[in-house]
Design a protein that fits this description.
The chain is of the alpha/beta class. The protein is 46% helix and 19% strand.
Amino acid sequence: MFRIIKVSLFATLGTLLAAPGAGADTYPERPIRLIVPFSPGGGTDINARILAEPIGNALGETIVVDNRPGAGSTIGSDIAAKATPDGYTLLMGTISLAVNAAVYKKLPFDAQHDLAPITRVSDQPSILVVHPSFPAKTFKDFVAKARAEPGKLTFGSPGYGTGSHLGEEMLLLQLGLNMVHVPFKGTGPALIALLGQQISMYMSTFASALPHVKQHRLRAYAVTTLKRAGPLPDVPTLAEEGVKDYEYASWYGLFAPAGTPRNIINKVHKAAVGALKSPEVMRIYEEQGLNATPTTPAEFAKYIASEKRKWASVVGRAHIARR
């Protein structure tokens, strides 16, 4: 009798110990949640919705985009970092993961330890936009107006401590301008405020502002990279507008909670890289002003570490208050 119970007990323990591996081998068996830590309409959301279907098709399951905005991406990223590491919760992370570590003294998670990098997804230039009714017709005119009215003009951001916020702060620092920062819970809300003339200027992700610029609902001053953007060839770069040695681009990447089994990471990586290299996704990205940048998980981890060091240096040199 004792021997039967003993054998049964070991069999049960063996089944329990084997369960994670078995689950990983059959992954995925139900829909996958892809957390976007910003509101709908921003660059992060656009990347997620472009990739959700092709990655889901490659994995054989539906990927559901779940927008969880707030605190400059910290709320949504923290949800992902603390999710069960079984592959059914993924995160479309951004440059904010590196920036927030430099801006905030204490975060509820550590991106380098609590998130597993899968692949860098894309990067894109940002674009300085204003409402068409704004009196300054060019960026040089805008700078002149801002210098003449220090502390009166406003600029929006998708949240305090986000990449766009620091990108704008660095631009103001370089130009010696004094403007008021107005943070929002993502690019979508910030663009709505600009369309409603509630703020003066916004450094938007390219893909988010592009439809508004093409339909003349917003006026584009300049792009933030050293080269002009293909979808808007007539919009100059900041360098062409007289701002030398300035360049800023947002990046996006796919993550899973730390501890996610390696074979699940590999499956998602293969599906994501395949999607990023597909002609259809590359065509859509080009139309949106995005550049696909697939990497290995190790390459992405190294890149994140370098970005964390870079933005810590920027925060110090720009005297941005840490919270």
